[in-house]
Write a structure and sequence with these properties.
Structural class: alpha+beta
Largest sheet: 3 strands, antiparallel
Number of helices: 6
Distance between the termini: 41 Å
Shape: elongated
CATH architecture of the largest domain: Alpha-Beta Barrel
Radius of gyration: 17 Å
Bound molecules: ligand HQG
Order of helices and strands: HEHHEEEHEHEHEEE
Strand order of the largest sheet: 1-3-2
CATH topology of the largest domain: ADP-ribosylation fold
CATH class of the largest domain: Alpha Beta
Number of domains: 2
């Protein structure tokens, strides 16, 4: 089984376009594993023999823990853009979080704060290395932003754990952002 292809297809199905797979996310983003498997098997010959065990192995095969499997259900941990906002439980973040981005976005970010743009939430990382990798998707020499997350949380800004080293926020006002 091609785990990269499976991960990309699942990201698309569980974050962005579940209706293309005849799936409906519940309010926390879960879908039934058996239903997903049935749809995947019909979607591409590459997935004709896909099993629950493939999903479990693929989810653990990458640095990024993009999916969560619990009993008979599975969901994407973060990254959604479906019209219906996926409900997350607020949680107190660590003191500092990081965001890697393209230098050309920094002026706008320092004026408007970090905004979710095409997704439901702003994505933040617990370590500079992960933030650097995220930024590298947008620029060969990304800018690292340091987020005063604990201070923002104390002031009432809302954060959510995205699993492992990813945190999410509704937004991050500019006063909590420092350019590294
Ligand atoms: C920028 C991948 C101008 C923001 C990654 C970012 C991550 C602004 C871009 C996850 C702005 C949005 C998410 C403002 C934010 N003005 N630009 N006010 N506010 N931006 O892709 O954080 O591999 O939606 O800096 O690794 O880059 O798919 O967010 O550059 O974890 O699992 O707008 O997606 O994970 O871009 O990446 P994105 P992101 P996966």
């Amino acid at each position: 089984m091609d785990f990269v292809k499976l991960s990309k297809t699942l990201s698309y199905a569980l974050r962005h376009a579940p209706w293309e797979f005849e799936l409906e996310l519940d309010e926390e983003g879960w879908v039934d594993v058996e239903q997903l498997l049935t749809e995947l098997r019909g979607y591409s010959r590459a997935f004709a023999g896909v099993t629950r065990e493939d999903l479990v192995q693929m989810s653990g095969a990458f640095d990024k823990k993009r999916f969560e499997i619990e009993d008979d259900r599975i969901r994407a941990r973060y990254g959604h853009s479906v019209p219906q906002k996926v409900v997350k439980t607020p949680a107190k973040p660590p003191q500092l979080l990081y965001h890697g981005t393209a230098p050309k976005f920094v002026e706008s970010i320092l004026a408007q704060g970090l905004l979710p743009m095409g997704r439901h939430y702003v994505h933040l990382s617990t370590d500079t290395e992960t933030a650097g990798k995220v930024g590298k998707r947008r620029s060969a020499a990304p800018t690292l932003l340091v987020i005063l997350a604990e201070e923002a949380w104390a002031d009432g800004e809302v954060f959510y754990n995205g699993g492992e080293n990813i945190w999410l926020a509704d937004r991050v006002p500019a006063k909590y952002i420092r350019v590294q």
